[in-house]
Every structure is written in structure tokens, then in C-alpha cells.
Design goal:
alpha+beta; Jelly Rolls; four-stranded antiparallel β-sheet; 5 helices
Length: 193
């Protein structure tokens, strides 16, 4: 019984001393409103507030515009790992460069070539027209060529808005299948607009 009496006594004592949040707000409403909301007593204050809000809106719009101009970097694998190319044959990988891309860079690292024979391979990068010509045995131009070798690197820029082919060529070898370990990547930038 003693504990219940003490709790009731504390409750009665502090009930009138500590107001509930709503009661506190009602008691100090005038002071709260004065400190929270500005007193727009004159039209010049309203004009200044509108001017400041307009300037803030302009700064935010300008910042958004600048962010839209900053390009986003993209990197994608064309092929990565071991590729087996039969004797007298080739393997190809198609990739596309977006039409609005900038700072386009393609790179191919031939890390090793193994198989019987000379352990060599040829790597080309061609656009779609020249790839079709090359497949059909007609004259074709390559954008990049590694030459015949066991380890090599080719890299360079490409124009935007095209379909390209990475060709791993073993057609010069009559009897030797090749296992080629390589990494080929395409990198470019695009703006958000």
C-alpha cells in the first residue's frame, strides 16, 4: 500500500507543475509564433523574401543544369577470360557504341596464347560493314590490328554510334587450335542530357 500512495502523491504534486505538450503550447503560443514565423509587417519584407526565394530557385536550377553536363563514365567487358579458337577459324564479339557517347576508348589485352604450333593469334577491330566484307573474303579495312603474336595490346578511340566487331583470328593456322586468354573492354562517357 505504501508504494501506491507515494506514486499517487508524486502524480498529484507534479500534475500541475509539468504541463502536457499541448498545454505548454497554449500557455506560450504568442511567444512561439513570434520566434518561429517572421513578422511580415511591411510589403518590403515580402518583396525581399520573394527575391531571396527566387535567387535560391535560380541557384538550384543552375546546379542541376551543371550536374546534367557532367558526363557519366561507362565501362563494359567485350570479352574476358579464355577463348578457344579452332584451327583455320576465328571467333568474334559484337559490341555497340551509343550515338551520344564521347571519349570512347577500346582496349584489348592478349595475355597468353597456347596450343600446338606457333602459339600465336591475330586480333582485329572492325566496323560492321568491313566485318561483313572480311567474312565474305572481300577486301576490308580494320580499325585496329594486333599483328600475329602471342602477347599483345591494341587500343584506341572509336567514333560514336556504331556497331563494331572484335575478331580473334586463327584462320592462318591449318592444324593448331589456340586457347587465348584475353581481356577486352569498351569505355565511354555520356552526359545526362
Amino acid at each position: 500500500m505504501g508504494i501506491v500512495t507515494v506514486e499517487k502523491m508524486i502524480e498529484k504534486t507534479y500534475k500541475y507543475i509539468i504541463p502536457k505538450p499541448n498545454e505548454f503550447f497554449q500557455l506560450h503560443r504568442e511567444e512561439f509564433l513570434k520566434t518561429t514565423f517572421p513578422n511580415w509587417s511591411s510589403t518590403s519584407d515580402v518583396k525581399w523574401a520573394k527575391l531571396v526565394l527566387c535567387l535560391v530557385a535560380i541557384v538550384i536550377a543552375f546546379a542541376c543544369f551543371i550536374l546534367c553536363l557532367v558526363p557519366i563514365n561507362y565501362t563494359e567487358d567485350i570479352v574476358r577470360g579464355t577463348v578457344t579458337v579452332n584451327a583455320g577459324s576465328y571467333r568474334y564479339y559484337q559490341f555497340t557504341v551509343p550515338s551520344h557517347a564521347i571519349n570512347i576508348w577500346v582496349e584489348v589485352f592478349v595475355l597468353s596464347v597456347s596450343g600446338s604450333g606457333g602459339n600465336d593469334i591475330m586480333v582485329y577491330i572492325m566496323d560492321s560493314t568491313n566485318f561483313v566484307n572480311w567474312q565474305n573474303g572481300r577486301g576490308a579495312s580494320v580499325i585496329y590490328s594486333s599483328g600475329q603474336g602471342t602477347r599483345d595490346f591494341i587500343g584506341g578511340t572509336l567514333p560514336p554510334g556504331g556497331t563494331y566487331y572484335l575478331v580473334i583470328d586463327n584462320s592462318f593456322s591449318i592444324t593448331s587450335q589456340k586457347n587465348v586468354i584475353l581481356q577486352a573492354t569498351l569505355s565511354y562517357e555520356q552526359t545526362r542530357l
